[in-house]
Amino acid sequence: MKNSILVSILADSHDGSISSKRVIAFIAMILCTTGFIGNMFFKLNVDANMYNSMMYIVVAGLGFTASEKFASKPPPSDSK
To answer: What are the residue boundaries of the structural domains of the chain, listed by start?
Structure first.
C-alpha cells in the first residue's frame, strides 16, 4: 500500500508523509466532481454557494501545494 498511486499523490514533497492540505483538497475535488456529475446527468440541484465554496477550497489547496515546490527545503539531518 505504501507505493500506491493515491499515497504518492497525497504525499508531501519534503518528507513523504501524507499532507493534510492535499487530503482536504482531494476530498473537496471529489465532492465538486460528484456535484457536477449529479447536476449534469441526474438533474440534481446543487446549491451554487456550496459548490463555489468547495471550488475555492480546491483552488486554495492546489495553490498551497504548488507553493511547496518553491519553498526552500530543510537541510538534511545528520543522524550518526
So the answer is: 19-69
